[in-house]
């Protein structure tokens, strides 16, 4: 590994937690800085296949070990989840010591993938569904690429508020661009997800991994996922296909309700595609939106998806590390609709998209 690669991997740890999230999850923020200075952690991340070299995979592996009963990690993470007395620096130092003492603990996780179902991203998805409804889209099929357990296929069913009302099923998202879109959400008539390794929430091991991919000190995030997992069996049916975006997308589209437009969406997924796969997927989506009644929505960090050809934004992101909201309507070009927090804590829609389509 050359020094340039080593520096890049260190930065993947160092900037894993955005500046605004350091205040919400200070222990994970401290851990990100500690691991950035660990040769052992950097070597572990280098051993991950290139498209999954996400530092959060190491974080998830450590959390999973804690959930499985590791003698040092379990009480430490339990204390963090309860909001106990462990300080961020102490937490980071003690986790760092475990990694340095026995890096082989993490070897089984290096072939896995981070599969976080960040349900709060559904707030941004719902905002887009509301704007599209105001433009005349009353019904829609949803196809979620990189769906994990498929929890973001219920974006239309959840309440969104700017402040927390205490209900774990409420999505909490601040609108930085004025009032939340007033139109109702377009009605979802079918829900299909696809993922190379989908998670089954009825499987205990899959459910534990889903929870391991969350941040233990973010209590609201954990409660939200648990609430959606609990309610999902009683909500409208969703179908989840196993396969890559390029391999099973057409199969997923074939499951859509005939005569109803389809919205293909992905949130922080294409960032992990290899360049050739990212380019092929982008090319296929441009073909589909040009020739069929298909919409394309993605929430991605533009620097991580250059082969999708993200459009120029009308305004810079209001906060660092934001995801760009990109929408392609049937027969149209990819258009920047604004920005959102990577976990949906805030949304900033461009004023030009809030009115009816001209």
How would you sum up this structure, described in words?
With 358 residues, the chain is of the alpha/beta class. It contains 12 helices and 11 strands. The strands form 2 sheets. Strands 4-11-10-9-8-7-1-5-6 form a 9-stranded mixed beta sheet, with helices on both faces. A two-stranded parallel ribbon has the order 2-3. Strand 9 and strand 10 form a beta hairpin. Helix 2 crosses helix 6, helix 4 packs across helix 8 and helix 5 packs antiparallel against helix 6. The mean pLDDT is 93.
List the helices and strands and how they pair.
Layout: H1 3-14, H2 26-36, H3 39-46, H4 55-68, H5 73-81, H6 88-101, H7 122-134, E1 139-145, E2 160-161, E3 171-172, E4 174-175, E5 187-195, H8 204-212, H9 219-231, E6 239-242, H10 245-254, E7 262-267, H11 275-291, E8 294-300, E9 323-328, E10 335-340, E11 346-349, H12 351-354
Parallel strand pairs: 1-5, 1-7, 2-3, 4-11, 5-6, 7-8
Antiparallel strand pairs: 8-9, 9-10, 10-11
Helix pairs in contact: 1-2, 1-3, 2-6, 4-5, 4-8, 5-6
With helices defined by DSSP (H or I, 4 residues minimum), what is the helix count?
12
pLDDT < 50 runs, ≥5 residues: none
Tell how many strands the DSSP assignment holds.
11
Q: Give, in order, the helices and strands.
A: HHHHHHHEEEEEHHEHEHEEEEH
Radius of gyration: 20 Å
Strand fraction equals: 15-25%
The CATH topology assignment of the largest domain is Rossmann fold
The CATH architecture of the largest domain: 3-Layer(aba) Sandwich
């Amino acid at each position: 590994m050359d020094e340039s690669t080593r520096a890049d991997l260190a930065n993947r740890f160092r900037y894993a937690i955005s500046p605004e999230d350091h205040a919400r999850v200070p222990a994970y923020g401290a851990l990100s800085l500690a691991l950035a200075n660990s040769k052992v952690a950097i070597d572990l991340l280098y051993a991950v296949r290139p498209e999954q070299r996400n530092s959060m995979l190491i974080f998830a592996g450590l959390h999973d070990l804690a959930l499985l009963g590791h003698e040092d990690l379990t009480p430490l993470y339990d204390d963090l989840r309860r909001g106990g007395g462990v300080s961020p620096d102490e937490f980071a130092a003690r986790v760092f010591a475990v990694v340095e003492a026995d890096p082989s603990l993490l070897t089984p996780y290096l072939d896995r993938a981070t599969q976080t179902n960040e349900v709060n991203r559904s707030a941004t998805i719902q905002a887009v569904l509301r704007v599209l409804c105001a433009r005349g889209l009353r019904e829609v099929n949803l196809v979620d690429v990189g769906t994990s357990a498929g929890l973001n296929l219920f974006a239309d069913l959840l309440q969104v508020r700017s402040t927390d009302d205490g209900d774990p099923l409420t999505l909490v998202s601040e609108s930085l661009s004025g009032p939340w879109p007033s139109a109702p959400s377009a009605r979802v008539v079918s829900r299909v997800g696809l993922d190379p390794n989908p998670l089954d929430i009825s499987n205990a091991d899959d459910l534990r991994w889903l929870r391991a991919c969350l941040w233990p000190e973010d209590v609201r995030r954990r409660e939200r996922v648990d609430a959606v997992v609990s309610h999902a069996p009683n909500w409208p049916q969703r179908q989840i296909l196993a396969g890559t975006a390029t391999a099973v997308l057409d199969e997923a589209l074939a499951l859509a309700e005939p005569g109803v437009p389809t919205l293909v969406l992905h949130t922080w997924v294409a960032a992990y595609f290899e360049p050739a796969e990212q380019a092929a997927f982008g090319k296929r989506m441009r073909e589909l939106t040009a020739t069929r009644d298909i919409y394309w929505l993605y929430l991605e960090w533009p620097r991580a998806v250059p082969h999708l050809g993200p459009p120029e934004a009308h305004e810079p992101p209001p906060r660092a590390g934001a995801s760009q909201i990109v929408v392609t309507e049937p027969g149209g070009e990819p258009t920047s609709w604004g920005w959102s927090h990577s976990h949906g804590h805030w949304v900033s829609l461009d004023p030009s998209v809030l009115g009816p389509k001209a």
